[in-house]
TrEMBL record, chain A:
The keyword Transit peptide does not apply. It holds the Pfam family TctB. InterPro entries: DUF1468. The keyword Transmembrane helix applies. This is Tripartite tricarboxylate transporter TctB family protein. Keywords: Membrane, Transmembrane, Transmembrane helix. The chain crosses the membrane at residues 12-30, 42-62, 104-122, 129-150. Residues 13-153 form the DUF1468 domain.
From TrEMBL, chain B:
Keywords: Membrane, Transmembrane, Transmembrane helix. This is Putative tricarboxylic transport membrane protein. Signal peptide: none annotated. It comes from the Bacteria. Pfam families: TctA. The chain crosses the membrane at residues 31-53, 60-82, 109-128, 140-160, 166-187, 199-221, 267-289, 324-347, 367-387, 399-415, 480-498.
Length: 160, 503
């Protein structure tokens, strides 16, 4: 795999992103103020600063390894398109946003239907598709609300 | 005597029909998750974690133990029948079991796997119960500097066991430690890394990390390399010609394997279980290799060795008992499953350590009993009742399965605090874990860094504070020196000596 390929796959982007995160973390660590300190105490900022420093070193090693020894092609976990995971993330984000406003039943029904579409499950048989989506929603309503007594949000709660 | 009564009380607790139902349900769920390629018992317990907010601690622990034991055993089912290990710990069983399957002796292989799991799991559980009072006394001897060195030992071992990706292991562990520092400081009442928001002052809860790292990321990984089924023809999954009577291994074969192989493998598995980061796969591999080197029939290995199956399965199930030791003694989980069980304890306000073992052993005894009963009774019973249909598990449509897992994971995240923020965190950690897994960073190291990070910081700061900031306390304190020496020994054995051998 060429450098560009590894860059887009994440082999280099991910440690670079972590360097940015570590820098933000380190800057915030220097802002931590100790309330009290006795002789021999190490303050609440010491471990975060130490962790961030070690993180820089480890990330540097990872970056050198990624550049020097590119992985030999894609393993099974890394093969395939990113479209499906992106669609799953999108559907999940929508589910979380609608969970309280629409209530468990409707939002879960839409979420399950969206996942069925992404996973191409029974998409050619609409009746089965609908029945399975209803069944999954109902089964987990039964499990959480009826068996474990969890108070799940309802549509009316979200509207009023 | 008191210990015996407490343990007897643990078995008595299993007679309560609610607790019994949770144990059986846990075992069946664990069997399903362990047998299904791609799903693991860790995922099953991760999905259970939110439910523990709504049930008592005893059924929650009992259920966790039965899931753990079932998940370790049931990986052998698909490993034997279709040569796809349901769990990584069943890799060695796949080598031998599937050979027997191809020779038309699949039921016999499943029977040996179940017998090995039953004996190993039982020995592991008995050793756990027998040594728990001693473990409690030993843990009382470890002082703060020693605890720091012990946590450091655990983190170092977790990183170095994956020799091929040590730098990435360090990154993942440090990432976990960084996440754990968000919130109120471990010793002073000051918030850290909340970035001006109130939501982060309390820190990040274990649950969204666990659900994200193990459930959401798994759904995303599966979505990426999507295949609607496991690629096993329906006919293969439906008709394997397995009969119940063939599950019982003939006495002559058991004699040939020998009681010593079972016991030795179980002790190896238990010992490896105590080590942080080692887990069922290493237990199975080491025990298999040991059995092979001392076997009277080494030529059978690779061609359907029943002894190999017995050694691997005894060890990985015995590992379950060993894995509980460091978690209960010091709150140091050696693997993700016990890390989540630690979460169950903490959610219920229980702090692992000698006091828990001494004063609240009545809460732990049913969990120990559940480990033993799961191994001794439920493994053979489940094989006998459901064995002929086991392989049909893989005919379940993956689209339906992973959609259901996504719903349980997200609604489960909501359950803990009735907040959509937890669901968003679970999604966020799921995306992070997905990126990590794609790039070969260990999510287990991140989880253990997250759990052990606060302990590491607290013990370090307390030790230095009590010794006027003098770091030599870690070398002058005998318990600390012991753990530092053990750490150095492991680094030498795994990295330096292991590296030379590989070269």
């Amino acid at each position: 795999m060429d450098l560009k390929g590894r860059f887009t796959r994440g082999g280099i982007v991910f440690p670079l992103a972590l360097i940015v995160v570590t820098t933000i973390y380190l800057a915030a660590a220097f802002d931590i103020r100790t309330q009290f300190s006795a002789a021999g105490d190490i303050g609440p900022q010491t471990i975060p600063v130490l962790t961030a420093t070690l993180m820089y070193v480890a990330l540097l090693v990872v970056l050198i390894q990624e550049i020097r020894n590119p992985p030999d092609g894609e393993d099974e976990e890394n093969s395939g398109s990113l479209l499906r995971p992106a669609l799953v993330v999108l559907a999940t984000a929508g589910y979380i946003a609608l969970f309280r406003p629409l209530g468990y039943s409707l939002s879960t029904l839409f979420f399950v239907a969206a996942l069925f579409l992404v996973f191409e499950f029974e998409t050619r048989r609409p009746v089965r598709f609908a029945l399975y989506a209803l069944a999954v929603t109902a089964v987990f309503y039964g499990l959480f609300a009826l068996v474990f007594g969890v108070r799940l949000p309802t549509l009316t709660e979200g509207l009023f | 005597m008191e210990t015996v009564l407490t343990l007897a009380g643990g078995f008595g607790a299993l007679l309560d029909w609610t607790v019994l139902a949770f144990m059986i349900a846990g075992f069946l769920v664990g069997t399903f998750f362990g047998a299904m390629p791609g799903l693991t018992s860790v995922l099953a317990i991760a999905l259970l974690l939110p439910i523990t907010y709504t049930i008592d601690v005893i059924p929650a622990l009992v259920m966790s133990a039965s899931i753990f034991m079932a998940g370790m055993y049931s990986g052998s089912i698909t490993a034997t029948t279709i040569n796809i290990p349901g769990a990584p710990s069943s890799m060695m069983t796949a080598i031998e079991g599937n050979r027997l399957m191809k020779q038309g002796k699949g039921a016999n292989a499943l029977g040996h796997a179940a017998l090995g799991s039953m004996i190993g799991g039982s020995i592991g559980a008995i050793l756990l119960m027998a040594f728990m009072p001693l473990a409690a006394e030993i843990s009382l001897l470890i002082r703060t500097p020693g605890k720091f060195s012990l946590v450091l030992f655990a983190l170092v071992v977790i990183i170095i066991v994956d020799k091929g990706a040590i730098a990435k292991g360090v990154v993942a562990t440090l990432l976990g430690i960084m996440l754990a520092t968000i919130g109120i400081d471990v010793l002073q009442p000051i918030p850290r890394f909340n970035f001006g928001t109130e939501t982060l002052i309390e820190g990040i809860d274990l649950m969204p990390v666990v659900i994200g790292a193990f459930a959401v990321s798994e759904v995303l990984i599966q979505a990426q390399s999507w295949r609607s089924s496991f690629g096993i023809p329906d006919a293969d999954a439906k008709d394997l010609g397995i009969r119940r009577r063939d599950f019982i291994p003939p006495l002559s074969e058991i004699r040939q394997i020998g009681l010593l192989t079972y016991v030795k493998s179980a002790i190896i598995g238990y010992g490896i279980g105590i080590l942080p980061g080692a887990g069922g796969s290493m237990a199975a591999f080491v025990s298999y290799a040991t059995a092979r080197s001392s076997s009277k029939h080494p030529e059978e290995y690779g061609n359907g060795s029943r002894e190999g199956i017995a050694a691997a399965e005894s060890a990985n199930n015995s590992m379950c008992g060993g894995a509980f030791v460091p978690m209960l003694m010091f709150g140091i989980p050696g693997d993700p499953t016990t890390a989540i069980v630690l979460g169950v304890l903490v959610i219920n306000g229980l702090q692992p350590g000698p006091r828990l073992l001494e004063n609240q052993a009545d809460l732990l005894a049913p969990m120990f009993a559940s480990l033993l009963i799961s191994a001794l009774v439920l493994i053979p019973l489940t094989l006998f009742l459901f064995g002929p249909w086991f392989v049909r598990i893989v005919s379940i449509p993956k689209g339906l399965l992973y959609s259901a897992i996504a719903v349980v994971a997200l609604v489960g995240s909501y359950v803990a605090t009735y907040s959509a923020f937890q669901m968003a965190l679970a999604l966020g950690f799921g995306i992070l874990a997905y990126i990590m897994r794609r790039n070969n960073y260990s999510t287990v190291s991140m989880l253990l860094g997250f759990i052990l990070g606060p302990d590491l910081e607290q013990y370090l700061r307390r030790s230095l504070s009590l010794n006027d900031g003098n770091p030599s306390v870690f070398l002058t304190s005998p318990d600390s020196l012991f753990f530092l020496a053990v750490t150095a020994l492991f680094v030498y054995a795994i990295l330096i000596r292991g590296g030379k051998r590989a070269a």
